Amino acid sequence: MKYDIIVIGSGPGGYVAAIRAAQLGRKVALVERAEPGGVCLNWGCIPTKALLKSAQVYQYCRNAAHYGVQLDGEARPDMEAIVARSRTVAETMSKGVQFLLKKNAIDLLAGTGVLKEPGRVAVDGTEYEADHIILATGARPREMPFLPVDGEHVLTSKQALTLKRIPESIVVVGSGAIGCEFAWLYAALGSKVTVVEYLDRMLPLEDEEVSKAMERAFRKLRATVLTSTTVKGVEIGEGRCKVTVEGKKGVQELDAETVLSAVGIAANIENIGLEACGVKTERGKIVVDEYFRTNIGGIYAIGDIVPTPALAHVASAEAICCVEAICGLNPEPVDYSTIPSCIFTSPEVASVGLTEQQARERGIEVKVGRFPFTASGKATAAGDRDGFVKLIFDAEERLIGAHLIGANVTEMLAEPTLAKRLGVTAHQIARTIHAHPTLNEGVMEAAEAALGAAIHL
């Protein structure tokens, strides 16, 4: 069968590409070897947030007396029920993707897609033709030689989503977004958690002040954080894990029931026919231009398999840009300087643009405005005052970076992201009336602080 466009992979890059192509009148097929929606909807973003919400509700119950609410009996987390709810949420979203595909008359081809030659794809042995083929095969958890995953004691994030019981203790290797979210989840549910980070601080890609605040938050949960620490190896014996690490205190051995490997992801570029077609790769990623064209005509790549930020919303933006370019709409290239990033711990982390350190390293003269949630009426009323808003402006007072940590800050990030994209100034943000009482007032207050005109500090 002949299609205008075949998309391989149905994650937030693939299914968005397929739907946009169908909207533009193309005949489209979408190839998927597992559940529609990819890792994000089924084994990543969505089910993880469902688990985190359950842990948050458990924390609310434990602290109900703080809000003047008395609960009879003891609140206890039921891990099987928590996981079951998470799986239901994931299945609901996956069915939603299937509905959208059907609504847009997209053929869903179940199986593994492999490039045979430009313009030809085999799906479990059946071949299809297309003028354009978009690769959106995503990524998987990276496995390291010193941390062999057995699926029972040493886990990846996928396996950590479906534990039947709360581990008594867990060592989380890696403190990026995935590591921190799972570490917070199990610490909140009662596990003894140790976070091991090779670099000198948690969340090493975030602003340094945010990293320090997150480390304090983990310590309030009685979690142990070991930075500048290397994992040397893991031994399994008698149902326990002995993790050998080397850090500031020399070599030590950590004992835990479970180990979670959260040391990054690896692109799924193997066994999809790249070599047969001569598609160029570098450092485990497919090389593309600004419109996601590979070196082979008619073959494109988006999402985690190209050297851009491995985030679901980035993949979706790349999908739209790629398809619109194929269809001759001359889209604006994706703006990688304005990519929002969110981490759904408690407190949450949200950021966009340059950190203060990055700006200074580039020789940019900066003005920094901060607003702590301790000064927020809404945060005080909500009983969650940890965190702050930090805005970074250049010499012309245009926003170049925003870094937030606190309750619900992921829902606040859209304003700074839009402001940065449009080149908004500190004065414009400060003079934009923000509703009271809201956490979003913190953005206005931080802009005022950068101008030296803070009212509430």
Characterization of this structure:
By secondary structure, the protein is α/β, with parallel strands linked by helices. Helix content is 31%, strand content 26%. The protein contains 14 helices and 24 strands. The strands form six sheets. Strands 1, 2, 3, 4, 5, 6 and 19 form a seven-stranded mixed β-sheet that branches. A five-stranded parallel β-sheet has the order 8-15-9-10-11. Strands 20-21-24-23-22 form a five-stranded antiparallel β-sheet. Strand 5 and strand 6 form a beta hairpin. Helix 1 packs parallel to helix 9, helix 3 runs antiparallel to helix 4 and helix 3 packs parallel to helix 6. The chain is globular. The N and C termini lie far apart (66 Å).
Task: Summarize, please.
The protein is an alpha/beta fold and 457 residues long. Helix content is 31%, strand content 26%. It has three domains: 2-140 and 266-336, FAD/NAD(P)-binding domain; 154-263, FAD/NAD(P)-binding domain; 347-450, Enolase-like, domain 1.
